[in-house]
Amino acid sequence: MARLFLAFMVLLSVAMAAAAVRPAATTTDAPPTGNCDQDLQDLIASCGDYVKFPADPKIPPSSACCAVVQKVNIPCLCSKVTPTVETLICMDKVVYVANSCKRPLQPGSKCGIAMSIVGTQAGDDCESDLTSLISECKQYVMPPANQKIPPSGACCAVVQKVNVPCLCAKVTKEIEKVLSMEKVVFVAERCKRPFEHGYQCGSYKVPA
């Protein structure tokens, strides 16, 4: 029973993240109200396999998946995306599926922390760093601040090569609400690339 429940939760999170896209057209999406249960079921059935970890390889979504992506109630589904959901699916693949289905994420779209960042970083010189960090490190920097977990080797490999000033310049107040900056500092230290005392990342200043 426990395994069945876990499998259902993973599929549920996959479906919600696969909906994290916005049409390129200028029309306005409906407000995040109403019932999107059927959209969720359709996404589970048609798109779940295309947004699971690992980030590579990426598989082009089926026409059935794209047909669902084209019609879902995005605001309703996005309202259900939590940081926990984002630890269970690959947001890099979500972006890939959205683009492949001709309903790409628009800059500034808000659908969980990862989608929000990717949406505001389109074309930036640290976009690939950001995608790698989301994929490998996000589970180590989510609240609460007092439950610190040593990062994986894969996470540290990413931390060692990212453009930190570029990334820190993009940390907004909204992002700081869903990340633990204390954990960000902890992960950097564990990965042997610590922040200097007094360094500012977003509005957070590393303590002396």
TrEMBL record:
Signal peptide: 1-20
Alphabetic keyword roster: Signal
Alphabetical list of Pfam families matching this protein: LTP_2
Boundaries of every Bifunctional inhibitor/plant lipid transfer protein/seed storage helical domain copy: 36-111, 137-201
Entry keyword annotation includes Signal: yes
Keyword Zinc-finger: no
SMART domains documented for this protein: AAI
CDD domains, per the entry: nsLTP_like (cd04660)
Annotated PANTHER family: BIFUNCTIONAL INHIBITOR/LIPID-TRANSFER PROTEIN/SEED STORAGE 2S ALBUMIN SUPERFAMILY PROTEIN, OS01G0800600 PROTEIN
Name assigned to this protein: Bifunctional inhibitor/plant lipid transfer protein/seed storage helical domain-containing protein
Organism in which the protein naturally occurs: Dichanthelium oligosanthes
